[in-house]
Amino acid sequence: MDVSPETVRGYKKEMPEPDRYMGRSPVWRRRVILDWIAARPAAGWNGQRPGRRRPAPQTLSG
User: Fold this and answer.
1) Domain-by-domain residue ranges, the chain?
2) Contact by Cβ (8 Å): 54, 46
């Protein structure tokens, strides 16, 4: 994944513990980051990440 150091610093408090360090730089396995992204609260006005569809609302009949 190609992510700038500035981006990582912005999420530093939210990110999982690094798998290891290369010098002073934290390093994560790809799967750890993908799982973290999937578990994060969605951004946006409707609480959904872009490209995800919310299921149709259930209607009450009767």
Assistant:
1) 5-39
2) yes
Spatial distance between the Cα atoms of 31 and 28, rounded to a whole number of angstroms: 8
Interval 1-50: pLDDT, tens: 677 888 888 887 888 999 999 999 899 999 999 998 888 877 666 666 55
User: How far apart (Å, rounded) are the C-alpha atoms in residues 13 and 60?
Assistant: 43
Residue 42 — φ and ψ, nearest 5°? Answer: -70, 150
**Alpha carbon distances (Å) from 25 to 8, 9, 21, 42:** 10, 11, 5, 27
Q: Phi first, then psi: what are they for 7, rounded to 5°?
A: -65, -45
